[in-house]
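RETRY 2/3 - previous attempt timed out on the joint model. Re-submitting the same 1520-residue input unchanged.
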Amino acid sequence: MPDEHWRMGKTCRHKGKFSMLVQMVLVMSGSFFMAEKMKAIAKLKPAPGAQLIEAEIPTIGPREILVKVRATSICGTDLHIYNWDPWAAGRIKTPMIFGHEFTGDVVEAGEDVKEVAVGEIVSAETHVICDTCYSCRIGEGHHCQNCQILGVDFQGCFADYVAIPAKNAWPNSPELPDEIACIQEPLGNAVFAVTEGSELVGKNVLILGVGPVGEMAVAVAKVCGAARVIVSEPNAGRREKAKAMGADFLIDPLNESVAERAMEILGGPLVDVVIDMSGNEKAIRDGFLALRNGGRFTMFGLPSNEVTLDLADSIIFKGAKVVGISGRKIWQTWYTVRELLDSGRLDVSPVVTHTFALEQFAEAFELMRSGSCGKVILKP
Amino acid sequence: MPDEHWRMGKTCRHKGKFSMLVQMVLVMSGSFFMAEKMKAIAKLKPAPGAQLIEAEIPTIGPREILVKVRATSICGTDLHIYNWDPWAAGRIKTPMIFGHEFTGDVVEAGEDVKEVAVGEIVSAETHVICDTCYSCRIGEGHHCQNCQILGVDFQGCFADYVAIPAKNAWPNSPELPDEIACIQEPLGNAVFAVTEGSELVGKNVLILGVGPVGEMAVAVAKVCGAARVIVSEPNAGRREKAKAMGADFLIDPLNESVAERAMEILGGPLVDVVIDMSGNEKAIRDGFLALRNGGRFTMFGLPSNEVTLDLADSIIFKGAKVVGISGRKIWQTWYTVRELLDSGRLDVSPVVTHTFALEQFAEAFELMRSGSCGKVILKP
Amino acid sequence: MPDEHWRMGKTCRHKGKFSMLVQMVLVMSGSFFMAEKMKAIAKLKPAPGAQLIEAEIPTIGPREILVKVRATSICGTDLHIYNWDPWAAGRIKTPMIFGHEFTGDVVEAGEDVKEVAVGEIVSAETHVICDTCYSCRIGEGHHCQNCQILGVDFQGCFADYVAIPAKNAWPNSPELPDEIACIQEPLGNAVFAVTEGSELVGKNVLILGVGPVGEMAVAVAKVCGAARVIVSEPNAGRREKAKAMGADFLIDPLNESVAERAMEILGGPLVDVVIDMSGNEKAIRDGFLALRNGGRFTMFGLPSNEVTLDLADSIIFKGAKVVGISGRKIWQTWYTVRELLDSGRLDVSPVVTHTFALEQFAEAFELMRSGSCGKVILKP
Amino acid sequence: MPDEHWRMGKTCRHKGKFSMLVQMVLVMSGSFFMAEKMKAIAKLKPAPGAQLIEAEIPTIGPREILVKVRATSICGTDLHIYNWDPWAAGRIKTPMIFGHEFTGDVVEAGEDVKEVAVGEIVSAETHVICDTCYSCRIGEGHHCQNCQILGVDFQGCFADYVAIPAKNAWPNSPELPDEIACIQEPLGNAVFAVTEGSELVGKNVLILGVGPVGEMAVAVAKVCGAARVIVSEPNAGRREKAKAMGADFLIDPLNESVAERAMEILGGPLVDVVIDMSGNEKAIRDGFLALRNGGRFTMFGLPSNEVTLDLADSIIFKGAKVVGISGRKIWQTWYTVRELLDSGRLDVSPVVTHTFALEQFAEAFELMRSGSCGKVILKP
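RETRY 2/3 succeeded.
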């Protein structure tokens, strides 16, 4: 029973199963597929780049569903895979269809599936957790020790179809636009990062780095009642976008001292919460300088190297709380995302800046590489 | 040294000191006061009503300040005193100048005062805490066992001048309108009630009873990220005001089943938080019926009698958390109020519906009695 | 597939399936069962009492396990069923084998079972949760809205064999004595009640009512670092047992004012936490009188009627937190129980006072009725 | 009014006031002091070492008390000052009587003192907080931005007498032995470090480094309900002492992999809480390796240099919470210390290993330097 691999959480779900019949590299067209084939973006060999391929439509196990993808969005992780950076080279087994953020229609459900039905529109929690480790059993599945990730550890969603465990499906309201539905997963990152560790009502928040998740974090922080959101970001275009998302003050860390400017804005050492979305060592050090005693420092951005910190001044004497964020709470964060979207409290549509056909993936990745964009959507 | 009484928290600060020279009952004018006299609204004898009197301007101790009142607002407690209900009869010692919500200018400061200076505009935390009991010493001054209340246990602010301990002064921004500055104390009640016990981001909230503090609670709950705020209130005018403050759904508990309607609105037993501002037994029972398992029930409204509850179904099987709210956190809540007002996140100005001259107090109290008003301001 | 009923959580798992071949009421012997029969204690008709019967050994579905019971203990709930009180009459459908606390050997496992294997010794979380409601999906399965209870809503463990969903099985260490293994479920109640809502390190705790779960709560509170545990209990024998479990002070509520005595012991209004295990109205009112401002009042005991409280003085002015407790956290509480037992930190063996053969059930229930016992074990 | 400096928190209370009449360096005797003189251990010039001097008995302001020291203990900070390390050279202004942990009798109280009376036995919270900064005003005085420390920023207690602000006095029970009374301040560090951030009931704790505060932390963690306390410490004698304080498992980090050994002990990545008392970079890195996903890492030990960490693996992917600890909560932690000592729950007497006369300070500091001791007491 193939989907039993999920339960063990030890092995890649589709390992060795992806029969890669790359009969031809497809260019600009998906029109001549046979019924059982689909187009997909895959990393075929351990090197930079990716290819549009024709692949078999996945078959599903008794607890899996097959989803016809409506829209998928590109994550920073996908860019790492595309660029084949050291992290990707160490983690990804080729051939691999990547991509993990999506929305689509359930077109087939395994015989044991109860969570969703054919015809529903779903997105997915992309972390497939083992349900058996200590973290999973105490309700902290987002800390699962055996987590497998869609499009990283098994075949992903940059494709016409994607197979996922039914337990990972999240039903969407039919009213939710596809462009928003497919970015709920990274929006969940933003919501989790902003809300975890302390509440924000009447608090002053400094967000370091506003790529797409940072931009969403700005909007979320405002919805959570933050009095003022200060953004530090070297890219002028992203600063402007942050302003549109609700940022009250903007800092260019290349030209200003972040901590001094934040204190000047607030009239003292009054940054209650710092949220690092950059993974940049200087930004992190700046953030600790700005943080008030007793404040919260949330780490979400992934540093590419080790980071050197003065722990005494940054954390110990400050009585700081540092919160590491990975993934989203399953399903608490998803419910929060849904309620904020459904109620109209949160509008993240400005974050979506570009939409491409799946076949235009190379153009889309170049745009991602330039940084001159928010979320980029691919439509199969 | 008179202000030492504060420290002990055992006795009323001004007890026996209010030399009531009621030379005449003043009508409609304050122009002929001598320098050391002031006009004030006082309860002179243990009976309903109040009188406009001429009183001596308070003298201050070394740690007290004298404030020239700019504006004062009427609290439900003041109405209890005015009406001389059983609670008032058991608590208030006449003669008593009542009133406790105000803003004004510091015109004199005792020799040991460091907290504020002459010329500053201040409101006051109206609970004078002992600083020595266990609650005070563990940072929970709002739970002080020896709390004395301005305008209840010692002479209040329905007057040209009021004397308070300097440690109770809260400096206001000069930009803050007097009408808002003077209602920060009850706004603090609303903020404390809404925020204590669990955060509201993406949550559904049911508020029972929307007098002025309830109305403010509606606006605060929205600022805190509540997905939906449902209000149950029998008074149609107040329901309308709640709508203006941001309520998403309105229930008339006289004509609808509160719990059934709330579940209908939300599509299930999904009220995460109930905030009772009414003190009404039926409302409280309704609220528990509506509350989801594991939800929070906040009690702020004061029932006039004992309340009978099915604890098994209301609290135990539900795994409910019940949170009692009295006063405000000193000074955490005040900072939250300030940040929300200063940053423009929160607008409670619609709550203020009427302004009267101090001399028109009788008219103001009649209006309060009718319930056809929000906050009512008196200006000396 | 019979075990699918669990998923829906809507219906009783074994409803209509318990083919009651009560060929004879068995007296004092289990030796002449056929291979497919077992002895069991069942409520055959809606009236007080129970009967020893011969029943078919349960068959299991693909996600269920069959357990050969080593030991089972009698819960207060079982006594309610035995006595056929109004709660039981409203909830229990006869015929019903009751009983839910047990330990035993897995002798058969359905084809889809992965959680445990034949040969393991297991106890069970007795609340079968639906996994699909909001509470379940946010990691609060103990608040499940569709919870079904072993021995209440479907056939229980007062028998040679019991069938349970594999997901509800909790593997026991082979070193754990059967008498302790089978009382882990109520011990979990005690651990959850003691730990939920605030930590106890250096705190003073008042426990109201010390039946077996209350006795365990005394020991747990001490392990949690409580400075002093005060017990109020009218039964002298139970007070003595509480002392043996670690209680520091004992109050007889029939002869002393609980609140006055507690304050006398502590030198002031310094009861930080009250845990009601009695469900008794007077005890609950006493407890609120004793509770300090800002303290925690945990409700676990189930009042048989509605309770009348002065909410203003008991909860609102006190700033009290009231915490309703039902069940246990799945599986956080179970892990805590395991760690405390395995590490030798917690010894609850004195709570077990009597062991009977299953056939002696009538004697055991009479003893339970008398109150002159701790936990009573039945061994098939 | 000299004690007003406390209020401002900006300046050293006794700065420039310590009239150092060092008429002679005293050797081994305090018998020929005049009435207004006292003996003290002072750092007279910015260099290693200290001297026994004759100094004037401090005069007190209206809100200060004069305490005749019964016993004082040596903190690691005092050793830094004695050794004149870079931190001390940058912080301490000579001449300075150092020392801050003590117990003694109140022999004089300023006219405005209400907190304690002559005749009481007191210890002191050694952090003199400003009461006016944001942290102080929100009940987080332990995060005060203007904190002044006894024996660091103003004259300390290695002397016959010490003057402190009355608000910093903590009354001791007359039954408390002097050796325990004087170490309550560092015991408060241990209690704060162990309890802050998450509760320990049934949890597995790894303590890195067991100097005296670490030893106390071991005992405190056990009192808090920790299932198992694992200690990593290179000094064999300290490991033995940790065992005596209740440690369940000992690791020598010079000969074993801390993380591997901890997981071997626990049967998996199950260290719930790491408490670093060492400030050692390798220990900190070891600790993060050992920490389970979602665990708490408490930092108390002060690294002498910046520390390099893999934040992605240590904190972000782990979803770790890092908690910086400085000082103690005022007065929550002191109450916890008192309740645990008074109730007999906690015994830290084995931590006190040596007692010297104040005149033997050089011998005491040499012993401290060797590390072959627990807490060392000096008696004037």
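Residues 1-34 of chain C have pLDDT under 50 and may be disordered. Closing ticket.
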